[in-house]
Automatic annotation (TrEMBL), chains A, B:
Keyword Transcription in record: yes
InterPro entries associated with the record: Homeodomain-like_sf, HTH-type_TetR-like_transc_reg, HTH_TetR, MftR_C
Annotated organism of origin: Actinacidiphila rubida
Lineage, broadest ranks: Bacteria, Bacillati, Actinomycetota, Actinomycetes, Kitasatosporales
Domain HTH tetR-type: 6-66
A Pfam family this chain is assigned to: TetR_N
PROSITE patterns: HTH_TETR_2 (PS50977)
Name this polypeptide is given: Transcriptional regulator, TetR family
DNA-binding residues: 29-48
Classification via SUPFAM superfamilies: Homeodomain-like
Amino acid sequence: MARWEGNTRLRLEQAALELFTEQGYDRTTVAQIAKRANLTERSFYRWFTDKREALFGGGEELEERLVAAIGDVPEGTGPLATLLTAFAAASDVFRPRAFLRERAAVIAANPPLQERELIKLTSLSRVLTEALVERGHDPATARTATDAGMAVFRLAGERWMADEQADYAELVTAGAADLLAILAEAAPGPPGPPPPTRTRVLR
Amino acid sequence: MARWEGNTRLRLEQAALELFTEQGYDRTTVAQIAKRANLTERSFYRWFTDKREALFGGGEELEERLVAAIGDVPEGTGPLATLLTAFAAASDVFRPRAFLRERAAVIAANPPLQERELIKLTSLSRVLTEALVERGHDPATARTATDAGMAVFRLAGERWMADEQADYAELVTAGAADLLAILAEAAPGPPGPPPPTRTRVLR
């Protein structure tokens, strides 16, 4: 990932994450982060409003890439298929797996960061729903497709972080199939042939 | 709903909601809420830590009822079917539709309340996932079933609030079928007969 190297913002993110992991989020200062990255505090504040934001810098980038990727999906594609295609296409802006794993650990240990993460994910949901509505899907369908898409996104993301070799696009497809199997069992629909399920199970 | 009437806590919730709606959340004080409910401030603080909590009083009750309802579902039921059955069974603790509609409007107008709502919903998700894991479902499946269940819960809840005559259990079933149709279109699985879809569409 060439974007990851040599970029001021990404160096600051990496330095922040290292310090949060080594000495705790609360005890880390912006001055320490800047020093670790061999940059000035002024550089830090050019990119982030506070130390918390250093963990969420990739969020806006992802949002922008996803909206762009949704725009590239052929017209007439169903709402959830549109989202899943966009997720797979936008994975090039993901931070490296090791970074994301450490980031998840820091967030899990700090309730204020968890709240921030929740708010960011909700903002992402809202943006995706709006993008689907702009493509002509009715708002309730767009919102429900987004709920399903976010569930697949979370599932694929967790598997991607856990497995260095995994291909993200394949995990998105597998996650959608797993969610479908869970739903099909609970809501089998009117009498007729059962929906196809996969033998792949969630472990 | 007999539980709704004559209950100190519910009178305080109703008074708080009225004042939030009439004069705004920020401008309403605990003293005003207590006065509107013909109760003392001390009574208020017996039930709630602050005015914000007066909007979220039903959350813990719902959580408890859902966990109890999950325990009542026959063993061997699939994870999402378990959740959907529990949602339908726990709807007797819902506040009246008019209350929930006004509550939703107040929350939508106040970002700190939106954050609180998000945190409460996340807490509910966590509790449901744990309850499924305790019943023997593996954690990843339990979590994914919870994601799907929360999507159905939201969809059914919005329709229930909007339609005075609607039956909640039927809306849960319809919501699950709608989510299934959206997923089946995006993740059709291996070659075979197409999964059944419903003609009911989300509008």
